[in-house]
Structure formats: C-alpha cells, structure tokens
Write a structure and sequence with these properties.
319 residues, 5-stranded mixed β-sheet
Length: 319
C-alpha cells in the first residue's frame, strides 16, 4: 500500500547505497580511509581533536631530594560538522513509466556523490591555501618549512620531485622520523620532545605520478624475468602508493604515516560515514498530496580536519 511505500523503498535504497559504496571503494574512491581516523560522535557540537603531550625526559632525583613536577601539555584542533544533502523528486507518472529503473540508479548516484565529497574534503587539506593546507591552532600552515623549535613551525614541507630513485622519499621519511613529539605548545618547549621515530606508510600522488610511485613502491618481480631494481634503499612493499582523484597538480605529492600509529587526518561522523536516505511517499505527504511526487532525501553529517601535523608531509614541486 501507499503507507508501506516510503519504508520499503527507503530500506531498499539504503541497502543499494551500501552495496554501491563498497563497489566504489574497491574502485579506489575510498583512498581516504587508509590515511584517516574515523570517529563517531553523539552530538553535532564542534569537535576538538586533542593531542596529549609526552614527557620530555625523566630528571635525575638525588638521594633524599624532592621529586619535581613533570611538564606535559596538550594541543587541539577543531572541526565543525556540516550538513550536506538534498532530494530527488519522482512523480507518479515517472515511477509508473520508468519501471523503477530510476529508483535503482538513485542510490548509486547518491553513494557516488557522498564518497567523492569526503574524498574532496580530505584532498583539500593538502591543497588549500596555495597548497600549504589550513592554518592550525599554533598559527602555522599545516605544511611549512619553519623549524619546529619555532611557534607554528612544522618542518614538513619540501620542494623535491618524487624522482626515479629513493632520494626524495628518504628525505621525507627522515624528516618525519625525526619529528619531535609534542611536550607543550609553550615557549621553551617547542620541538623539545623525543623523536617520533615513525616512518611514513602512504605515498599520496596525483594520477600523473601514479606510474612513478608504483615503480618505486610496488614489487616488480616478474616470473621468469630478471628485473633490475631502482638503486638505493629498497622501499617497495613497505610503502603504499595512493592516487588522489581530486589532485590536479602534476608534480606535488605527499606522505602520511599509518593512522593506527599516529593519527593526523580525522573524520567525524554523526549518523554514519555513509549518508542516510529517507523517502516521503505517503499519499498524505505534502508533495504527494499536492503533486503526486515522492521525494527521496539524502542527508550526510560529516566533519573533516587535522589533529596533528607530525604524521603528514608534503612536497610542493615547482611546475
């Protein structure tokens, strides 16, 4: 009956959306899942991504002497939820004549729009503001070459092309490995923490550099053939090349540490990382009553931001 229509259709459309989301992910549109940390929230309040500082060192305590307080601070970045969505109107005539093919296509299109929206939001963290990213709470751009001993200094920006050897990757890996952990965002404590000692795991490239990244990091062992490996430290099998669909600069690239070890990019979701579909199709619903139009609405609450610059590195190469 018309009373069942909205619930049956909404249930079916959400199932198709989930299936399409998985298919799109396997096609590469979920690249951002590899480098991000997704967290669920129970409210739409502004999110504060907190980082707790580490203890710089344990001072020596002489016999009979008093223990002194250990300095430990924290830092935080904020993100706000944005609501995205819209609706598709299908008239009674359109449904009747189309033999419900439109209903089959709509959830796939909605899944495509939503997964690409997250993709573009994460990609923009690396390309906004002339490719240095958003300004963080410490007043420094996400990517800058300023020393970490200075307020707002991140020392995570280079200008070297990815190249055909491991020289450029070694430079980035070394810089990330040597990043000092946070003690406190205060004068006298900037850049005083111990080394992070984490290597980057993901190499982010535009489509134009996909071949170069694959040559460096994917195994080139061909059965029955002798393949010469690139000279230098052998990183293949240790780094995952990731193509970012939204990047248009043909030379810029980036490196990201494993978010399970050191979170950098954060995604907050309120009702799920996938969008929700609702259907207004009862005869008493205003659009149906007035216009014989059933409306399929999509709603998506998502927040994307950065909690820490240390596991992120960028190379902005002059064109």
């Amino acid at each position: 009956t018309t009373a069942n229509f909205p619930y049956l259709v909404a249930n079916s459309l959400n199932k198709v959306l989930c299936k399409a989301w998985g298919e799109l992910g396997r096609a590469g549109y979920n690249w951002w899942e590899q480098i991000s940390t997704v967290q669920h929230f129970n409210t739409l309040n502004t999110i504060t991504w907190s980082i707790f500082g580490t203890v710089g060192s344990l001072p020596t305590v002489s016999e009979g002497a008093e223990y002194t307080p250990l300095k430990i601070g924290d830092a935080g970045e904020t993100s706000t939820f944005t609501k995205r969505g819209g609706y598709v109107g299908l008239t009674l005539e359109a449904i009747d004549r189309d033999d419900v093919r439109a209903l089959q296509q709509i959830p796939k299109e909605l899944a495509f729009a939503a997964i690409r929206e997250i993709s573009s939001l994460v990609a923009a963290l690396f390309t906004d503001n002339s490719a240095v990213g958003p300004t963080l709470a410490d007043t420094g751009a996400l990517f800058n070459a300023t020393a970490v001993t200075t307020a707002g200094g991140h020392a995570n920006l280079l200008t070297t092309a990815i190249g055909t050897t491991y020289a450029a990757w070694e430079a980035i890996a070394t810089a990330m490995y040597n990043q000092p952990m946070l003690v406190a965002n205060e004068t006298g404590y900037y850049g005083t923490g111990k080394k992070m000692a984490i290597e980057p795991k993901y190499c982010l490239v535009p489509r134009a550099l996909r071949g170069a990244a694959n040559d460096l990091f994917l195994s080139r062992d061909i059965p029955g053939a002798s393949v010469a490996l690139t000279t230098g430290k052998e990183w293949y099998g240790m780094v995952v090349p990731v193509t970012v669909p939204e990047w248009t600069d043909a030379t810029d690239w980036a490196a990201v540490a494993d978010p399970a070890l050191m979170p950098g990019i954060m995604i907050g979701e309120r009702f799920g990382v996938m969008p929700e579909i609702f259907v207004a199709g009862n005869e008493t619903d205003p659009a149906v009553f007035m216009n014989d139009e059933s409306r399929i609405k999509v709603r998506h609450f998502i927040a994307v931001g950065v909690c820490d610059f240390r596991p992120l590195h960028k190379s902005n190469v002059a064109g």
